[in-house]
Design a protein that fits this description.
Structural class: alpha/beta
Strand content: 15-25%
CATH topology of one domain: Rossmann fold
Number of helices: 13
Radius of gyration: 20 Å
CATH architecture of one domain: 3-Layer(aba) Sandwich
Distance between the termini: 52 Å
Shape: globular
Number of strands: 12
Helix content: 40-55%
Largest sheet: 7 strands, parallel
């Protein structure tokens, strides 16, 4: 049985990855999460009582705690999801992003380096540190520009993407300077179960079901490449198994959509699946709001490297993935209701009402 340390494993992507590993491997999973607003123990409720899943509440920046976990559990792999990840929140308060994404990643790398140096040569060779990053580090694309490849220069445009770019550079440096066997993945926009509803798709679903405005920044023509979260999890697993140490792999869904297209798609599915909704047709709730500062116009990922070198391809189309996502939120109303507390509502008011 291998041991994998997952940081940020109570968040959206991290929790989906924990479930993916629990289902598809016999690994022991040590799950370290600070449980900020986006980390939710309910995401892991199905694993309660499972001896292969060990949850620890804590911060990747707590060096003493991380040292203790590494010494106690002796992981064979570390997958670092722990991050502040919402552009709008980074605009309102960038310091948390620097502390978690830059300083936290640094402390995690330092602890990992010390642990890795104490391993036997066989274990050192087999060890992997996989850092999860974003396509936003590459900046913005024009409408006719080719999709981001791994050789694109970094050009982050928000405090969030700048903090992630910084952490990516640290991971790269620890491989080239110290020999730490690192891997980095840069993914496009994820969607799927357990996503905190500050992000576009779950926000649309929640608001539409309550007859609230569906806020669209600017003209709604900002383009993103959309990746179903469970496809992302399978890509991460493939990179852990087959990725070349020191390399970066871009992970995308091959589905570029404007924000306005996303809204109309979600509304059409809700019209179909909730025929008794008093707010049908839900697209009448669309409301255009003032654009956010520095809003990147287009992201797109070229996933040809991970396809050719590792053999990974997404299993879901956007149409199948978005239907599964809307269905999940409809079938998990208790999870949604527990999320929509006072602090979440305060954030929504802070971010949207002034627009």
């Amino acid at each position: 049985m291998k041991v994998i340390l997952v940081t940020g494993g109570a968040g959206f992507i991290g929790a989906n990855f924990v479930h993916h590993q629990f289902k598809n491997t016999d690994h022991k999973i040590v799950n370290l999460d600070k449980l900020t607003y986006a980390g939710n123990p309910e995401n892991l409720a199905a694993l309660n009582g499972e001896t292969r899943h060990v949850f620890v509440k804590g911060d990747i920046g707590d060096r003493a705690l991380v040292d203790t976990l590494l010494a106690e559990h002796q992981p064979d792999m570390i997958v670092n999801f722990a991050a502040e990840s919402h552009v709008d929140r980074s605009i309102h308060g960038p310091e948390d992003f620097i502390q978690t994404n830059v300083v936290g990643t640094f402390h995690l790398l330092e602890a990992t380096r010390a642990f890795w140096n104490g391993l036997t040569e066989d274990r050192k060779t087999a060890f992997r540190f996989l850092h999860i990053s974003t396509d936003e580090v590459y900046g913005s694309l024009t409408a006719d520009a080719p999709a981001f490849s791994e050789t694109n220069p970094y050009a982050p445009n928000s405090p969030y993407s700048a903090s992630k770019a910084s952490s990516d550079h640290l991971v790269r440096a620890y491989h080239h300077t110290y020999g730490l066997p690192t891997l980095t993945t840069n993914c496009s926009n994820n969607y799927g179960p357990f996503q905190f509803p500050e992000k576009l798709i779950p926000l649309l679903i929640m608001n539409a079901l309550q007859g609230k405005a569906l806020p669209i920044y600017g003209d709604g023509q900002n383009i993103r490449d959309w990746l179903f979260v469970q496809d992302h999890c399978s890509a991460i697993a493939a990179v852990l198994e087959k990725g070349k140490v020191g390399e970066v792999y871009n992970v995308g869904g091959n589905y570029e959509k404007t924000n306005l297209e996303i809204v109309h798609t979600v509304c059409a599915i809700l019209d179909e699946l909730v025929p008794d909704s008093p707010y049908r047709p839900h697209n009448e709730l669309i409301t255009y709001v003032k654009d956010r500062p520095g809003h990147d116009r287009r992201y797109a990922i070229d996933p040809s490297k991970i396809a050719s070198e590792i053999g990974w391809q997404p299993a879901e189309t956007f149409e199948s993935g978005i239907r599964k996502t809307v269905t999940w939120y409809l079938e998990n109303r208790a999870w949604v209701d527990n999320i929509a507390n006072g602090s979440y509502q305060n954030w929504i008011s802070k971010n949207y009402e002034a627009r």
